[in-house]
Amino acid sequence: MAGESSGGAAGGGAIYGLGVLGAWVYFWRDAPEGFWWHVLAVLEGIVWPAFMVYEAFSALD
Questions:
Q1: Can you tell me the distance from the alpha carbon of 10 to that of 5, in angstroms, rounded to the nearest whole number?
Q2: Is Transmembrane given among the entry's keywords (predicted)?
Q3: E-strand spans in the chain?
Q4: Contact 27, 41 (CB under 8 A)
């Protein structure tokens, strides 16, 4: 397995990471005041890309 490249996977991970980071900023700024609202914003940022991919695949039908 020596010499195999995983450059494509690293690029996909970077784009996923930027998506999660952007979602965190968006949901954090949109959350009302309060600790639990900001905890929810962090959780939404983690699962948001999954919903986006689901909607993208649904649009292909």
A1: 10
A2: yes
A3: none
A4: yes
